[in-house]
Amino acid sequence: MSHGSSLQNALDAFNDICNVDILSVTTSASAPQMMKTLAKCYFGAIEKDLISRYALSPRQVAILSCIRAPHAQDFLLTIPIDGLGQKMNHRQFRSVLCYRLTIPMFSEGSVCPSCNVHRMDKWGDHAVHCSSEVGVKFRHNLVRDILVDICSKVGIMVRKEAPMGFRSGDGKDLRPADLLLFNWLQGKDACLDVTGISPFAGMGAKSWAPAVALLNAVEKKKKKYASICEDNGYKFIPFAFSTFGEFDKDALDTLLRIKSISISHSNNVKSGEFIFHRVSFCIQKGVGAQLVSRLPSNFM
Ligand SMILES: [Zn+2]
């Protein structure tokens, strides 16, 4: 087959799949730019028909929706830098990909080697929900610490684990604020509460609906902390994310605000993107650690 007919075949296949004339989507003369445009057009067409063209399971449909959320895939854009904690080992990275691509990792029904109580499922839902060693708390603290680090680096006054002296309605001492951001909203200090959830931890993928798990987590936190913060002259900010990297609206707003502060200090509009990359990477690093610590040693 000559090069000429190979090219023609490729063009025909492209035009057929994308249902578009190739010359209408790119006028760029430079090869890298043209390839980027064509790839975007091609994968856009594939993605559009993914659910109707392929027989996806409810879990795959749900995950597809989760990872399409703003910044949910930013961890893939992160530059590996050890000093910033932006590195994970190959088992962690592979297990994160398995979790997102619905590739089974665990033997269904085996006992969790971490808590020794609950049963594992093959997808890793228990692994990312388990509260035992290298559990939810571990992931929570990773994200809390990275937020503190980011705030400090961009010049935002912040205190980690700030004791507020608040008490709940039934007289119990409430936990310190994960982050206390000084002079953050309308001249008030704000208590930021970090929450990570796994969307399938309850009834599994069948009862899943877009963003519901995140919303429920935020509502629960607001109910517990918002009014007590307001009564004491503080603002309350829930910072909720999911194991697939979605952010709740308040978390996105907070990151956008930090980003704009970062840009205002650097004169480079692109400098703020690293904030989303760092937090996104940190979430996946935590998820990877949770999965790996429960993986059979002969897997991957
Ligand atoms: Zn467990």
Automatic annotation (TrEMBL):
Stated name of the protein: Uncharacterized protein
Organism: Tanacetum coccineum
